[in-house]
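PROTEIN DESIGN WORKSHEET
SECTION A - STRUCTURE
LENGTH: 590
C-ALPHA CELLS:
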C-alpha cells in the first residue's frame, strides 16, 4: 500500500510537478503545484473528493515529484509529461494545427494573405482565426471593400497587364500602375483600421473623402467611396459582441450531456465574432466542468497567444480570466454554451450513424464482432509516372488523419499496379510487424481480384492470417453504388444495395484513400516535371535551379519571366538567361 503520510512528509514547499503511478508503473495522473507539499497533501486530507478522484487514489501505488524553479516552468513540464505519458486520469485535449492568421505584407504595395506558422517582423498579422475559411471570408470582404491585391510577389513583379480580379473590381491593379502608391497606401491603412475593429473611423474618413470628391465634381471617385461606405455599413450589422469595438477576447464554455464533454471556444477579434471551434477532451468521464475548463486553458494557451480577455463558463483562478454572472459577457457565454450543446448533439448523431454503418458492414461481410480498425489502400499515377500509394485509417468510428501514410513507389515497371500494391503492403505491414504497431481488422484495396489476391499473399507471408481482405472493384461505367466486393478469404464476390449503410462506409473510406493518393501523386509529378524541365538545360545545376524557383515562385513564374528578369537572378548570366528562356518557350510550344 502507498504510504501517503510518509511520502508527503518528505516533500519540499517548492513549485514542481507530481506524478501518480499505478501498480505497473503506469502514469495515472500528472499535475503541477506552486507548493508540492500543500498540493499533494490536499489529495489525502480532503474529504468529499469527486468519485473520479477517489477512484484514482485507490489505484495509486507510488508517486514521483520533480521540483522546478517557478510555476511557469512547472506548467511547461506538466504539459510535456501529459503529452508523452498520456495519463489515464488527466483530461487531454489533442494537439491541433496552429491557428491561421490574416497577413498584410510589408511590401511597397502590401498584399493580403493567409498565414499559418512562424511570423516575420516585416509583415502585420491579424488573428488568430478559428478556421481557415474565416480568414478567407475576411480576405474576400477586404477585397470587395478596399480592393487590395492577394497575388504572390513573384506574380506581382512579372505582370504586364491586369488580371481578372481587376476586371471584376476586386483589385486596383498596382502591378501595372493602375493606382498611385499613395492612394493604394491609403486603402491599406483603412483595411488595417477595419481589422483593428475601428470601422467607425474608416466610415467617417471615407464619408469625408466622398463629400470632397463630390464637391470637386470627381463623381466617379465619389461613387467608389460611396460603395465602400455601403459595403462597410452592411458588415456593421450588429452582433452581440460589437458594443465593445476593438476588443480581442476568447469565450470558453463547457457542456456535458450523456457522458460527452465539449468545450466551445468563441473568438472575438477587433470586436467582431470571427468564428468558433469545439473540442472534445479525452479522459473526461466523471470530470466536473470546472476541471475541464481548467485543463483546456492550461493546455490550449501553452502554444497559442492569449487575448487580452478570456471569458469562461466556470470560475477559474487565472489572470485575465473572468466568469460573468450578467450583462453582455454572459450573453457571449450563453452563445458558446449553446454551440457546445449543438456540437455534442451532432457528435451523437455522427456516432450513431457510424455505429450503424460499421454494424451493417460486419453483418454483410461476416466479420468478427470486434472489427473496428479498417485500413484502405489506393494507387495513383499518370500513365505510370510518379506512382504514389496511399493508406488511410478508419478507427474508433472516424477517419484517423494523423495515421494516414503515403508511399512513393519505386523500382517497379511503370503502370504495374499489382507490383505497386505488393510493394506498399509489404512496406506498411513489414514495418507494423517489426515495430509492434496496430494491426487492422479489415484491409480494403481499391481494385478487383488481382489486387485483393496480392494483398492476401503479402499478409500470409508476414503471418497476418487473421486480417480480412476485401477488394473494392468499380462497377459498370464506374457508377457509385454498383461496386463489386471481392471477399478474398472466401474466393467470392458480392454486391450490396446502393442504399446499404455498409456500402456507404466502404465508399467513404475508399474515396478518402483515392483523394489522399491523388494529392500525393500530383505533388510528386509536379516536382518531377519542374526538376526535369530545368535539368534539361545545359548549365543549370541544383543551386541555380533552386535560385530560379525561389526567385519566381515556381516553374510557371520562370516561364512567365522575361530574359532581363531571369538574368537578374544570382548566378544567371545574360547568355544563360537567353538559353533558359528559349528552352522553356520551345518546350511549351511543343
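SECTION B - SEQUENCE
RESIDUE ASSIGNMENT:
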Amino acid at each position: 500500500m502507498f504510504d501517503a503520510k510518509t511520502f508527503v512528509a518528505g516533500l519540499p514547499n517548492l513549485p514542481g510537478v507530481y506524478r501518480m503511478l499505478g501498480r505497473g508503473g503506469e502514469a495515472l495522473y500528472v499535475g503541477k503545484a506552486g507548493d508540492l507539499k500543500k498540493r499533494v497533501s490536499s489529495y489525502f486530507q480532503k474529504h468529499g473528493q469527486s468519485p473520479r478522484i477517489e477512484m484514482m487514489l485507490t489505484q495509486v501505488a507510488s508517486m514521483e515529484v520533480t521540483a522546478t524553479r517557478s510555476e511557469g516552468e512547472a506548467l511547461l513540464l506538466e504539459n510535456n509529461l501529459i503529452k508523452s505519458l498520456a495519463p489515464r486520469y488527466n483530461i487531454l485535449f489533442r494537439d491541433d494545427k496552429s491557428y491561421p492568421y490574416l497577413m498584410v505584407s510589408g511590401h511597397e504595395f502590401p498584399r493580403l494573405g493567409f498565414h499559418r506558422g512562424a511570423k516575420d517582423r516585416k509583415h502585420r498579422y491579424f488573428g488568430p482565426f478559428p478556421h481557415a475559411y474565416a480568414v478567407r471570408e475576411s480576405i474576400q470582404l477586404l477585397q470587395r471593400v478596399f480592393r487590395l491585391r492577394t497575388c504572390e510577389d513573384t506574380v506581382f513583379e512579372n505582370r504586364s497587364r491586369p488580371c481578372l480580379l481587376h476586371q471584376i473590381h476586386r483589385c486596383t491593379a498596382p502591378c501595372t500602375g493602375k493606382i498611385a502608391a499613395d492612394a493604394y497606401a491609403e486603402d491599406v491603412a483603412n483595411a488595417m483600421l477595419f481589422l483593428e475593429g475601428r470601422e467607425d473611423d474608416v466610415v467617417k474618413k471615407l464619408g469625408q473623402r466622398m463629400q470632397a470628391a463630390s464637391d470637386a465634381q470627381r463623381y466617379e471617385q465619389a461613387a467608389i467611396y460611396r460603395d465602400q461606405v455601403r459595403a462597410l455599413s452592411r458588415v456593421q450589422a450588429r452582433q452581440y459582441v460589437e458594443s465593445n469595438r476593438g476588443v480581442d477576447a476568447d469565450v470558453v464554455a463547457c457542456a456535458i450531456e450523456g457522458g460527452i464533454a465539449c468545450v466551445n471556444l468563441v473568438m472575438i477579434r477587433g470586436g467582431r465574432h470571427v468564428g468558433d471551434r469545439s473540442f472534445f477532451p479525452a479522459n473526461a468521464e466523471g470530470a466536473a466542468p470546472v476541471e475541464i475548463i481548467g485543463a483546456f486553458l492550461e493546455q490550449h494557451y501553452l502554444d497559442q497567444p492569449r487575448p487580452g480577455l478570456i471569458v469562461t463558463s466556470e470560475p477559474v483562478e487565472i489572470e485575465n480570466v473572468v466568469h460573468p454572472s450578467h450583462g453582455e459577457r454572459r450573453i457571449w457565454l450563453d452563445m458558446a454554451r449553446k454551440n457546445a450543446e449543438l456540437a455534442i448533439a451532432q457528435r451523437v448523431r455522427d456516432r450513431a450513424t457510424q455505429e450503424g454503418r460499421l454494424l451493417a458492414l460486419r453483418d454483410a461481410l461476416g466479420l468478427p464482432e470486434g472489427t473496428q480498425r479498417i485500413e484502405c489502400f489506393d494507387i495513383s499515377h499518370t500513365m505510370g509516372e510518379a506512382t504514389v500509394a496511399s493508406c488511410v485509417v478508419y478507427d474508433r468510428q472516424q477517419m484517423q488523419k494523423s495515421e494516414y501514410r503515403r508511399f512513393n513507389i519505386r523500382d517497379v515497371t511503370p503502370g504495374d499496379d499489382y507490383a505497386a500494391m505488393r510493394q506498399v503492403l509489404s512496406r506498411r505491414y513489414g514495418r507494423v510487424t517489426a515495430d509492434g504497431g496496430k494491426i487492422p481488422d479489415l484491409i480494403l484495396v481499391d481494385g478487383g481480384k488481382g489486387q485483393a489476391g496480392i494483398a492476401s499473399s503479402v499478409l500470409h507471408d508476414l503471418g497476418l492470417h487473421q486480417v480480412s481482405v476485401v477488394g473494392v472493384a468499380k462497377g459498370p461505367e464506374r457508377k457509385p453504388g454498383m461496386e463489386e466486393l471481392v471477399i478474398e478469404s472466401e474466393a467470392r464476390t458480392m454486391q450490396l444495395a446502393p442504399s446499404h449503410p455498409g456500402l456507404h462506409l466502404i465508399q467513404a473510406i475508399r474515396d478518402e484513400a483515392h483523394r489522399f493518393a491523388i494529392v500525393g501523386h500530383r505533388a510528386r509529378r509536379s516536382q518531377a516535371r519542374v526538376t526535369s524541365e530545368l535539368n534539361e538545360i545545359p548549365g543549370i545545376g541544383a543551386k541555380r535551379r533552386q535560385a530560379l524557383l525561389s526567385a519566381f515562385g515556381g516553374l510557371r513564374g520562370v516561364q512567365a519571366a522575361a530574359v532581363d528578369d531571369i538574368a537578374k537572378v544570382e548566378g544567371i548570366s545574360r547568355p544563360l538567361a537567353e538559353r533558359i528562356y528559349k528552352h522553356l518557350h520551345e518546350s511549351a510550344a511543343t
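SECTION C - NOTES
The first strand starts at residue 16 and ends at 21.
The chain has a mean pLDDT of 87.
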